[in-house]
C-alpha cells in the first residue's frame, strides 16, 4: 500500500463564537486509512457538532459547528505517521 502523505496543510482559522468553521487537509492518495482528527489532543468523532468528511477522495474536512470558547486550541489532522496542525 502506498505511503499516504499530506499534500496541503491545515490553515489557521479565526472565528466568532457561535459560527461554524471548516478545516481542510489534502492527502496524496484516495481512500487513505488511519485518519484522525483531534482538538487539543482529544480525538474527534463524526457527530452533530463535528462533521468529518472526504471531498473528491483526497480532501479531508472537519467542520466544527457553533464553536464556543471551549473549542479554542490546536486542531490536528493525522494520516499514518504524518500530521498537520492549525
TrEMBL record:
<keyword id="KW-0963">Cytoplasm</keyword>
<dbReference type="InterPro" id="IPR036179">
    <property type="entry name" value="Ig-like_dom_sf"/>
</dbReference>
<feature type="domain" description="Ig-like">
    <location>
        <begin position="2"/>
        <end position="86"/>
    </location>
</feature>
<dbReference type="InterPro" id="IPR052385">
    <property type="entry name" value="Obscurin/Obscurin-like_Reg"/>
</dbReference>
<dbReference type="Pfam" id="PF07679">
    <property type="entry name" value="I-set"/>
</dbReference>
<keyword id="KW-1015">Disulfide bond</keyword>
<dbReference type="InterPro" id="IPR007110">
    <property type="entry name" value="Ig-like_dom"/>
</dbReference>
<dbReference type="GO" id="GO:0005737">
    <property type="term" value="C:cytoplasm"/>
</dbReference>
<dbReference type="InterPro" id="IPR013783">
    <property type="entry name" value="Ig-like_fold"/>
</dbReference>
<keyword id="KW-0597">Phosphoprotein</keyword>
<protein>
    <submittedName>
        <fullName>OBSCN protein</fullName>
    </submittedName>
</protein>
<dbReference type="InterPro" id="IPR013098">
    <property type="entry name" value="Ig_I-set"/>
</dbReference>
Amino acid at each position: 500500500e502506498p505511503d499516504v502523505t499530506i499534500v496541503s496543510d491545515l490553515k489557521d482559522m479565526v472565528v466568532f463564537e457561535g459560527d461554524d468553521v471548516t478545516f481542510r487537509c489534502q492527502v496524496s492518495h484516495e481512500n487513505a486509512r488511519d485518519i484522525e482528527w483531534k482538538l487539543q489532543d482529544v480525538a474527534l468523532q463524526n457527530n452533530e457538532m463535528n462533521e468529518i468528511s472526504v471531498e473528491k477522495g483526497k480532501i479531508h474536512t472537519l467542520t466544527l459547528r457553533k464553536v464556543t470558547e471551549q473549542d479554542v486550541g490546536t486542531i490536528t489532522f493525522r494520516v499514518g505517521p504524518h500530521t498537520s496542525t492549525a
